[in-house]
Design a protein that fits this description.
The complex is a heterodimer of chains A (372) and B (408). With 372 residues, chain A is an alpha+beta fold. Chain A is 52% helix and 14% strand. Chain B has 408 residues and is of the alpha+beta class. In chain B, 40% of the residues lie in helices and 14% in strands. The chains are: A alpha+beta (372), B alpha+beta (408). Chain A binds chain B through residues 2-7, 254, 257-258, 265-266, 268-271, 273-275, 277-279, 281-282, 285-286, 288-290, 292-293, 311, 314-315, 360, 363-364, 366-367, 370, 372, and chain B through 246, 248-249, 257, 260, 277-278, 280-282, 284-286, 288-289, 292-293, 295-296, 299-300, 303, 308-309, 312, 315-316, 377, 379-381, 383-385, 387-394.
Chain lengths: 372, 408
């Protein structure tokens, strides 16, 4: 489908509001503080995001206590969060869990959990990946045993966003019908949660081990198709976050190239640097096209959503990584230090590239969808 | 240009129907029809009345086309050879020409009777067009011109040429240029086809030896040729940076997919296939993003807030095209060793019958994409300096008389 890509005044206002909030509450010092913490987010900031700006329930319908907005608003917010390297459970709870519940869970569970997510009071995550390292549905091997009120889970989930701090975990598991979604509370018996030592300290991941852990099925029948769509929705949102980060890297590089003098003139006047910046600009603009196309597809429930989302994830991942890498190069020795923020973006870029499948994984999906 | 005159779409459609009542494309040849279209002010509606227009907004030109298409199976489009005359010649004559020139030249440009060409580039002046060396010296009421032009499209068909020449070598390069309308049939004008990488000649070289141009064929004042030329060049870049197919999966990528689907599948191992398939997917992605980026640029233009998305297309498109057709030949494998179209030197395009032939042809032709209308290196300078605000490079030819600047 061909989208109009029109942003309204309300979108511009939302962007300005979120940017102002993050400049105040998620500046570099705040980010570094959360990187060093075990939980990886500031509960006060999270509460403010939920209560004052309504971000935690951005895409949750009003009937469930959310703001009832869509993916165009989400893309604006994700761009800003990526730009600020915000450390928060937004991706896990407000995006992944909110989408999974709306697409796969029964009415009662939606009613119970969505309001809590929107209020910022219940942090929910989704456990999907396993130690086999696959991001597709075939990678989901952990099986649910028993039925009705006697379901238990045994096995390991890993790379779970905020898995060690979430109040509720939605586990994607094998059932005789296919794939189902199961609710496990943080205090369930037989659940062991271990924070992982991440490459990217701004986004926390955990490994969860289940040993006959009691779980409540929240979906009926096979959720394979619905869950594949949820994954597309998550990567569409993540690609918008990548765009925000990539744009910030370009801005930092250009700013430095204008002010850093060597051999008596700004380094940005040399074509070696100028052309690198121009190529970054092209890649960032193309990444925007990719992410916007995916998020508009999500907003309009376009039949090509899976293709658009994987296309965006493949392209934005590489653009962000190259922008972050070139930003370090343009900053020279300074860009290699711990003190300078360039490495924070570099690590976020690589981690978000690998999370939910790397570019080759997503190009495989595009090839399949397009028929190459 | 003065403010646009307000006219409703209905009234313009009515005027178009009045033209069709007088002459109809289905029963009238292109030249007489387009002459009448000019007389009715429906040639380029944004030109003033009396010069083929009605003083309307340029956006309203499509309405005339649309109305003609509604009432006629035959539409006399702009003739291919006249694109330069219509796109660049007519605006420059309108802005800088004498009343006599406007009266005599504009109708013949539009009708297709007179083809125009643009003569700026020279062997020693490529990206640095303003450094050109063609010399024009005053002799009474005439200018005597000597030198060589290159990459001149349709020169061999042209009646008139837009010529940029150096009238004063003793001042810095931009200040010593003047702009002329050259009679291509004048003594001393020699046009030779310039054969290119494909074996065809899309372009020409033009040699000028003691060619005399009357002084009143100078457009703009003496020494102001660069300003006159700038307007022309801007139009060219807009024309080239179109930004890919409007339809998803259309245009070049559709041809490339045909080559992929028709490939000899036994020729490569599964591992080789996987590599090529990934490259095919990358080509699809890049083409798709070229399309979406153009769409974003159009949306931003409509809403009045154009951003960098419009400026990146020329560079991106050139590089993407080259990669895409390199891949086309790689997908063919050994079949890429043959070139069915042949290298027989010829003027104009040969016919390309299959996706395979087109891909091989494009593999060669696309090399020009990152050279013509601004090289990719120049485009990166423009993006860096005008969009990102990076400082320019120190210029060694600034404030130096042209004759004292080293040149190849």
């Amino acid at each position: 489908m061909a989208f109009e890509f029109t942003f309204t005044e309300e979108h511009d206002e939302l962007r300005a509001t979120v940017r102002a909030f993050l400049e105040e509450r998620s500046d570099e010092n705040a980010v570094r503080e959360q990187m060093a913490s075990e939980t990886g987010f500031d509960p006060d900031v999270w509460a403010q995001m939920a209560e004052q700006i309504g971000l935690a329930g951005l895409i949750i319908p009003e009937e469930h206590g959310g703001a009832g907005m869509g993916y165009v608003e989400l893309l604006v917010v994700m761009e800003e969060m990526g730009r600020a390297l915000l450390c928060s459970p937004f991706l896990s709870s407000a995006v992944f869990a909110a989408n999974a519940l709306q697409s796969c869970a029964d009415e009662a569970t939606q009613k119970e959990l969505l309001a809590g997510i929107a209020a910022g009071e219940t942090r929910v995550t989704v456990a999907h990946a396993e130690p086999n390292g696959r991001w597709d549905l075939d990678g989901i091997q952990l099986s649910a045993t028993g039925s009705g009120g006697n379901v238990t889970l045994t096995g390991t989930k890993t790379f779970v966003l905020d898995g060690h701090t979430a109040d509720v975990i939605l586990v994607a598991a094998r059932t005789p019908q296919g794939i189902g979604l199961f609710r496990v509370n943080a205090d369930a018996s037989g659940l062991r949660r271990t924070a992982l030592p991440e490459l990217d300290l701004t986004r926390k991941l955990a490994q969860l081990e289940f040993a006959s852990t009691p779980a409540t099925p929240v979906s009926q029948g096979d959720q394979s198709a619905a869950f594949a769509r949820v994954l597309a929705l998550v990567v569409a949102a993540l690609s918008a976050e990548q765009v925000g980060g990539a744009q910030k890297c370009l801005d930092m590089a250009v700013e430095y190239a204008k002010t850093r003098l060597q051999f008596g003139r700004p380094i940005g006047s040399y074509q070696g640097i100028k052309h690198k910046c121009a190529d970054m600009l092209v890649a960032v603009e193309f990444a925007k096209s990719a992410a916007y196309n995916a998020c508009f597809a999500a907003a309009e429930d376009d039949p090509d959503l899976i293709e658009s989302a994987s296309l965006a994830k493949a392209y934005c991942s590489e653009s962000y990584f190259h922008a972050a890498a070139d930003n370090i190069q343009i900053h020279g020795g300074m860009g290699f230090t711990w003190e300078h923020p360039a490495h924070l973006y570099f690590k976020r870029a690589k981690a978000s590239e690998l999370l939910f499948g790397d570019p080759s994984h997503h190009r495989e999906i595009v090839a399949r969808e397009v028929g190459i | 240009m003065p403010d646009h005159i307000q006219m409703s779409e209905d009234e313009l459609r009515e005027r178009t129907r009045a033209l069709l009542e007088e002459v109809h494309p289905e029963t009238t040849e292109a030249i007489p029809f387009r002459r009448k279209q000019y007389e009715h002010g429906l040639a380029w509606v944004h030109f003033p009345e009396g010069h083929g227009g009605l003083g309307l907004s340029p956006k309203m030109n499509v309405i005339v086309q649309d109305e003609i298409g509604k009432h006629s199976k035959v539409v006399h489009q702009d003739p291919g050879a006249s694109i330069i005359g219509i796109g660049m010649g007519a605006p420059v004559v309108l802005t800088y020409g004498t009343d006599e020139m406007k009266r005599d030249m504009l109708p013949r440009i539009f009708s297709g009777e007179d083809v125009w060409c643009q003569m700026f580039s020279e062997p020693s002046a490529g990206s640095d067009v303003a450094g050109l060396a063609m010399r024009a010296e005053r002799d009474g009421d005439e200018w005597v011109v000597n030198g060589q032009k290159v990459w001149t499209t349709v020169a061999h068909l042209s009646r008139w040429g837009m010529l940029l020449a150096r009238t004063n070598p003793d001042v810095p390069k931009h200040d010593g240029l003047s702009y002329f309308v050259l009679d291509m049939q004048a003594p001393g004008v020699e046009v030779r086809p310039l054969y290119q990488i494909t074996g065809e000649a899309e372009f020409n070289e033009v040699f000028l030896t003691d060619v005399r141009i009357p002084h009143d064929r100078m457009l703009g004042k003496e020494g102001q040729g660069w300003n006159v030329a700038i307007t022309t060049l801007m139009n060219e870049r807009v024309a080239i940076g179109g930004g890919g197919s409007k339809k998803k999966g259309g245009g070049g990528i559709a041809q490339l997919l045909k080559v992929w689907n028709d490939r000899n599948k036994d020729a490569s191992s599964p591992a080789q296939e996987a590599i090529l398939r990934d490259r095919m997917t990358q080509a699809w992605i890049e083409n798709e993003l070229l399309r979406v980026t153009s769409q974003r640029a159009r949306a931003a233009q409509k809403s009045g807030t154009p951003g960098p998305e419009g400026s990146v297309s020329k560079l991106a498109q050139a590089e993407i095209h080259k990669r895409m057709w390199e891949l086309g030949v790689d997908v063919m494998g050994a079949t890429g060793l043959t070139f069915e179209a042949g290298y027989e030197l010829r003027q104009g395009y040969g016919s390309l019958n299959s996706a395979l032939e087109l891909a091989k042809y494009q593999f060669l032709r696309s090399r020009a994409n990152s050279i013509e209308g601004g090289t990719s290196e120049i485009m990166r300078n423009i993006l860096g300096e005008r969009v990102l605000g990076l400082p320019g490079e120190p210029r060694v030819d600034k404030n130096v008389a042209w004759k004292d600047v080293p040149r190849s």
